[in-house]
C-alpha cells in the first residue's frame, strides 16, 4: 500500500511533506488536488482547479477539503505540521530530532511559530503580488505583509546567531517549514536582501539533496 499524498506542488504546506519525504528517501504516490489552483494557475484568473478535494472520498479523509492529506497504509492524517511529526516519529527519530525529546519539542515550537508568524503574511504577500489578477491586488496589503515578515525574520535571524539550525546546532524537522519559507522569501524579495545569519542558513539548507524536491521557482511563484 505505501504512502499516498494529496496536494498541489505550489502549496507550501504540501511542500513541507514533499521535503520530509525527500529527507527520508521514502517512495510515495502523489495525487494533484486543490480547489484554488490548477495546471494553468489560480482560479481567480479563470483557471480550472485540480479538484479532487470536493469529492466525497476526499472529504471522508479530510473534511476541511484542503491539502495536504497523507495516507500511510490505512492511516489517514491531515494538518501539515502533524504530518511532519508523524513522519519524523515513524520513519526518522534519529535524523529528524536526534531521538531527543528536547530537540523534538524545540522543533515543534518552530513549526508552530512558522504557522502563526510567517504563513499569514507570506500568504497575503503572494496573493497580492502574484496570485490575484492585477486589478484585485492591494499594494497596501503587500506592504504591510512585507513589514510583518521583516519583523518575524528578525526573530529567526537572532536565533540563527545562537544555533546553526533553527532548533539546535543539528538539522531537525523544524528546519523543513523554515527551508520552504526562506526559499520563497528569497525568490520573492531577492536572496541578496537576506540578513547575514539567514543568508548563511539559506546556503546550508539549499545544499541538502532533499532541497531538489522544492527548488523549482515555479513551485513558489505560480500564479
Ligand atoms: N493548517 C492546514 C491548512 C491547510 C491549507 O489551508 N492548505 C492550503 C494550501 S497551502 C489549501 O488547501 N488551499 C486551498 C486549495 O488549494 O484548495 C495545514 O497546515 O495542513
UniProtKB/TrEMBL annotation:
Residues 1-95 form the GST N-terminal domain. Residues 100-223 form the GST C-terminal domain. PROSITE patterns: GST_CTER, GST_NTER. It comes from Nisaea acidiphila. Keywords: Transferase. GO terms for molecular function: transferase activity. This is Glutathione S-transferase family protein. Signal peptide: none annotated. Belongs to the GST superfamily. It holds the Pfam family GST_C.
Amino acid at each position: 500500500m505505501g504512502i499516498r499524498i494529496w496536494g498541489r506542488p505550489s502549496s507550501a504546506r504540501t511542500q513541507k511533506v514533499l521535503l520530509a519525504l525527500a529527507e527520508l528517501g521514502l517512495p510515495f504516490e502523489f495525487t494533484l488536488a486543490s480547489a484554488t489552483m490548477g495546471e494553468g494557475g489560480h482560479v481567480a484568473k479563470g483557471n480550472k482547479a485540480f479538484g479532487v478535494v470536493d469529492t466525497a472520498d476526499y472529504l471522508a479523509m479530510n473534511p476541511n477539503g484542503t491539502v495536504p492529506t497523507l495516507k500511510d497504509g490505512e492511516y489517514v492524517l491531515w494538518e501539515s505540521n502533524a504530518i511532519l511529526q508523524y513522519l519524523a516519529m515513524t520513519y526518522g527519530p534519529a535524523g529528524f530530532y536526534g531521538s531527543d525529546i528536547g530537540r523534538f519539542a524545540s522543533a515543534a515550537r518552530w513549526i508552530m511559530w512558522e504557522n502563526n508568524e510567517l504563513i499569514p503574511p507570506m500568504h497575503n504577500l503572494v496573493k497580492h503580488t502574484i496570485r490575484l489578477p492585477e486589478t484585485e491586488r492591494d499594494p497596501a496589503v503587500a506592504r504591510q505583509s512585507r513589514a510583518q515578515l521583516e519583523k518575524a525574520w528578525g526573530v529567526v535571524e537572532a536565533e540563527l546567531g545562537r544555533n546553526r539550525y533553527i532548533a539546535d546546532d543539528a538539522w531537525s524537522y523544524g528546519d523543513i517549514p523554515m527551508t520552504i519559507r526562506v526559499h520563497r522569501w528569497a525568490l520573492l524579495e531577492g536572496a541578496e536582501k537576506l540578513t547575514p545569519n539567514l543568508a548563511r542558513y539559506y546556503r546550508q539548507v539549499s545544499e541538502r539533496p532533499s532541497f531538489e524536491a522544492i527548488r523549482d521557482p515555479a513551485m513558489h511563484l505560480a500564479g
